[in-house]
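Lecture 7 notes. Example A: sequence first, then its structure tokens.
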Amino acid sequence: MEAWFFENQTGNFGIKIRIESILFHEFSDFQEITIYDTLEFGKVLVLDKAVMFAEKNEFVYHEMLGLVPLFSHEKPERILIIGGGDGGVVRECLKNPFVRQIDLVEIDKKVIDVSKEFFPEIACGLDDKRVRILAEDGIEFVKRVNAGGIESQKYDVILVDSTDPVGPAEGLFRRDFYEAAAGSLNGRGIFAAQTESPFFNGSLIKDVGKIIEDIYPKRSLYCASIPVYPSGLWSFTTGSKKYDAEIINGSYKDFDFLQLEADSKYYSREIHPASFILPNFIKEIMK
């Protein structure tokens, strides 16, 4: 008998993946966590019945959220990641030569624990000495940093690796969070967040883009192709106080991009600016 996982998207559309077995299933204090072993994509992490990533192509999402903002920044030494308990974005950020400290703020410690157990190749950076893990609410965390007002405690880059805008992640798509995050960046900081599918979440992309445009001098949106996400096309929205996110910063002129590209499967010097070239229908959403 065949077994399938089905993720319902709109009531009229969903994603179906054939599974071989259930490796893990538990309700944490915050959400339902399931890990499936699938025939097509390998192990898949599912939170509250929504796919977070698949082992076969997780590198696309993690590389594009982690590497694009960091290589747009001249010297990203202090990084804050909200969510991302699986460690994939941490792994990618550690490829940047300037990174000295990464604070990973994940509300659900269980996600960290199961990722270390079932996805060690993704969670491999979580034990790096430059990484500090904080099991707490990312919204409250940035509010404290912002309220503190101490420049030395602020960040060069803030990345939001969130689930869909429901449940624990709902507040990560609101104006008060974006404003607190901006206040937690130093004067040359960059903010980036995943902002869902242009095909199914155009209103969210428009709303988030307007907020980011109100807060930051520079706003951009870029996309990547991720097969296990709804429609296969995914967006990321950035706000920058100084740098153009579309451009790899000149401070990397002597950096060994050949080695980076050997260690990466999607990101490259060419992909970086190309990902900001948007189809007309996404440009229309952004207006």
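Example B, a different protein, same format:
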Amino acid sequence: MNSTQLRCFLTSANTLSFTEAADQLYLTQQAVSRNIINLERELGAVLFVRDTRSLRLTDAGAYYRSYFTNADYDFHSVCTEVEDMYSRLAERFRIGYSRWIDPLGQIDEGVASFRAGHPGTHFSGRQYHNDTLFSELSKGELDVVLMSEAQISWIREFERAPIAHEDICFYAPPYVEGDTPDPNLWGLPILLNAAWDWTYFEWRQMVLKEMDHLDVTSDRVVSLPNIQSIYAELTLGDCVVIIDDRFGNVSGFKNMRRFHIDSSTRVFALWDRQNETPLIGDFVKHLQGAFGYNAAKPTA
């Protein structure tokens, strides 16, 4: 018996639906069903009457539901006892970051506050190329991946949830005047950072996708090796850059003109619903609360 089996049983007993229990626990319906079957084997009792139209508790199921949830022996106490009995190892929680997200920037504030509430859990985080992130997620080597919405439009096999609105900004040379950028500036070269093992073509396609989302066009996209060279080019030439100022690998270009772009782009968390790590749902909800996420785009 383990805490995942108990969570699956009690949530199913409360909802009388394996599907709804799976949604609440961030698992697949198959995983919930499998855990309950294993629990029934260990208890030596059938907990549910299953048919094609409904799910209801057996007498044994009703007894164990009451036993595990009564006031003197609540669910959390049961989970604690079971975990202490069957595993003395600390839980692990492994986070993967897209190369477009700075793990030491604002995103770290939400992760750090979640870590503070789970002192017995070992946390680890790594930045990867996107292909590696998806591969590690599929293999169960990562529990959650964090990346920009612009990078996941073609991913279908993972669950996802938005956790925060990005702050997409348009940076222009310091001579640009007014409260809004001159529309003619959108025709200037768009700078991008072709870094790590990304090719110029891959970065260019990603930037063009973001530009299309923002209804921005440019005849030229220029590849530069790093953020410093982008800053130098901005101070010297007629060019612009579009970047996420909230979670991206930049803390702001000094002495540059910055304009906020009307964009609803978000940062997402991705996970595999076959992963039974119980912290995934709590982590996603925590980040949404930490970053004040709501479905509507926040006003400036």
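Note on Example B: The longest strand covers residues 92-98. The two ends are 50 Å apart (CA to CA).
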